[in-house]
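Practice problem. Given the sequence and the SMILES for nicotinamide-adenine-dinucleotide, write out the predicted structure.
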Amino acid sequence: MSGRGEAPIRVGVIGCGQIAQLMHLPLLHELDEFAIAGLCDLSPTTLAYLGERYGVATRTTDYRELLADDGIDAVVVCTYDHAPVVAAAIAAGKHVLVEKPLAFTAAEARPLVAAAREADVVALVGYMKLYDPALERFVERLATLRGLRAIQVHDFAGRFDRYGDLYTEFRGDDVPADVLSAGRRDAAGRIADALGPDRAGYGELYLLLLMLGSHDLAVLRGTLGSPERVRFALGRGDDQLLALLDYPGGVPCVLEIGVGTSYEWWDEWLSVHGEDAELRLEFPNPYIRHAPTLLRVREADGASASERVTPVSNASLFRLEWLHFAGCIRGEATPRTPLAGGLADLELAEAIIAAMDPRPARLEPEPAPWRSSSPARPGCSAATC
Ligand SMILES: NC(=O)c1ccc[n+]([C@@H]2O[C@H](COP(=O)([O-])OP(=O)(O)OC[C@H]3O[C@@H](n4cnc5c(N)ncnc54)[C@H](O)[C@@H]3O)[C@@H](O)[C@H]2O)c1
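Answer key:
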């Protein structure tokens, strides 16, 4: 779709940190379909830097000001705590693209799904992997797979500190630390309430499922649908978990997610095993804009075997996501990643934690080492991946 000839959709960016700077702002700048119409961040120096860089005069530290602005048609939500911003954006009649996760809990997400359904706005969750042409090719081949026997999802990520030289990122240091820590504490309290007293000690693992893991849950749902139930789940420390999910027909799905490795490769894949073929999607580091996802198909070749590896597309998935958002707003496409999917993933994340052995909250919770803000472990910087 070309935006030429049509007025660009005027977007306000709420939360101008890493993902906004690495992906959303450059894409909004380059796509004819959009104009960057406003910036909001808690950091005034970040606003000043990005406002100059992108020539945006409307800058505010209060997202409600942006939402009250008639010059804004749509917002992208890239803050830490999404639910209150999404609720206010829908109420203000703005189209919304919200970064994953949709919210911190399913209870917070349900009213957002209902509000989006009732409002005349487009609301999408930023599951860019669901726009991957390799995933589409995988789904096509899956439709002809005979006798599905097993599913595996593995995501140990890899080093998060290897892409720093690829991009320019500005990080203001003028947000009071107590504002940030109060926000994190508030979210942790809501999460503990959702997990219940017997499992409140799994807050960090639950966040792992919401941050890195929500991509895996979305990809699973987008290719194979939702599981019937969680049969078993196990946490290893605060940075690794294993779950066994039941799919229709007694097909087992093993889900393994972790951070904190120092792998120099990106270790994220989905595999399905049929009677006579294995299909596998191997995902690249999502921060590397044009790295292709590999589709690997192993099957019979006469009386022998073949293995074909296809780097399906070099398209930037974030760019495809934005183009789809424009198409939905212009009535040319039907939302592919509506808020309901974000809710389904939160429900599954909660069910996975509910299947673990009880682990009540510790009296004095220590931040998990991979969430520490001082010198980042190579495995994960801010764990917002
Ligand atoms: N799709 C992906 O692959 C992907 C990758 C990374 C992050 N994310 C998601 O994007 C979100 C942001 O992640 P990040 O890595 O950019 O984090 P970040 O900490 O670098 O940026 C967050 C920014 O939001 C600002 N902010 C926080 N609360 C705010 C508020 N109330 N009003 C205005 N600004 C506010 C902060 O000042 C900060 O600049 C997370 O929810 C994360 O899950 C998605």
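Check your answer against the key. The first strand starts at residue 9 and ends at 14.
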